[in-house]
Amino acid sequence: xxxxxxxxxxxxxxxxxxxxxxxxxxxxxxxxxxxxxxxxxxxxxxxxxxxxxxxxxxxxxxxxxxxxxxxxxxxxxxxxxxxxxxxxxxxxxxxxxxxxxxxxxxxxxxxxxxxxxxxxxxxxxxxxxxxxxxxxxxxxxxxxxxxxxxxxxxxxxxxxxxxxxxxxxxxxxxxxxxxxxxxxxxxxxxxxxxxxxxxxxxxxxxxxxxxxxxxxxxxxxxxxxxxxxxxxxxxxxxxxxxxxxxxxxxxxxxxxxxxxxxxxxxxxxxxxxxxxxxxxxxxxxxxxxxxxxxxxxxxxxxxxxxxxxxxxxxxxxxxxxxxxxxxxxxxxxxxxxxxxxxxxxxxxxxxxxxxxxxxxxxxxxxxxxxxxxxxxxxxxxxxxxxxxxxxxxxxxxxxxxxxx
Length: 404
Ligand SMILES: [Zn+2]
What we know:
Elements: H1 3-10, E1 16-23, E2 26-32, E3 49-63, E4 66-79, E5 84-87, H2 101-111, H3 116-123, H4 127-142, E6 152-159, E7 166-172, E8 178-183, H5 187-200, E9 206-209, H6 213-222, E10 227-230, H7 232-253, H8 257-263, H9 267-271, H10 283-293, H11 295-307, H12 316-332, H13 336-347, H14 349-353, H15 363-376, H16 380-383, H17 385-393
Helix pairs in contact: 2-4, 3-4, 4-17, 7-11, 7-13, 10-11, 11-12, 12-13
The structure holds zinc ion (ZN).
């Protein structure tokens, strides 16, 4: 080892190499800060007096698989300007940390391919050490997202973990970045977001959410100028829930075993897009059999197919006509569940058709959701909520292994 290798291997500059020691499978390099490099940590004054030392040891990048340390006597100096005695700054490690910055970078590099547990085992440090290194990095890169350029956003709540744990996530639809993670769901989860948004003077022009009352109120109160688009995936999902409920009802009312047998197992067929029906499993035939048997089911099914048309029109005017025609047919069906759904949809007509002002949805949040579901399998989310939220903020360009 030499002084220049200290720099090239460990990123340590301004210190001299003194000696090395091999002990119990570890390597320790003793280094020293030359007298002329000492200065006051407070004001930078170099005209200081040494008033004792403290020996400190830092983990650094391993040599081979051997845990490697650097150790040095850190001087305490008296400064004539500040008239106080303080320990000098360490050039290669952050305050209070017992590892070098090169060790941090190495751990982060490994984290791109390995879980926290794997990295910790490989480097023979604790799980918490690796987690802290990741948390600091995430905090620096994503901890304070800039909001002033936000224009189009999507917000939604995402279930995390057992019990009814939720986080509410706000996505920048233009960049794909998560810009806020709030605890829980509903209006309260977003309070801090609105505050920050006002402070940033962001000019949000459009918001995509589901049709819930909480979001309608929140957007009206906090973004009165923005166009509120009701996400079409949520509308279709809501209708699918009604369709499933209707099928269950019909199954229970079925008068013969044969009828029940036909209805049984059609739930997924009803929800599938027709182009995805599996020919080899006779899915189309089975579906048609069930639809022929039951008029209500058949009406609901074709309404489901037509519902999607609302979002594939050339312009808002045509879409409005398609929507109103759909509403009329749903009401004419006299099927209670569908009539109720039509009332909901009619009430939200403007928000649904706002899709033609801004073609946005909460769809991109689905990708975020999937990644969160991967992360949540690991219990750490609940051991350390702050870390979990940081991970979500960095999720769009996360280079850490998702689990860990
Ligand atoms: Zn000073």
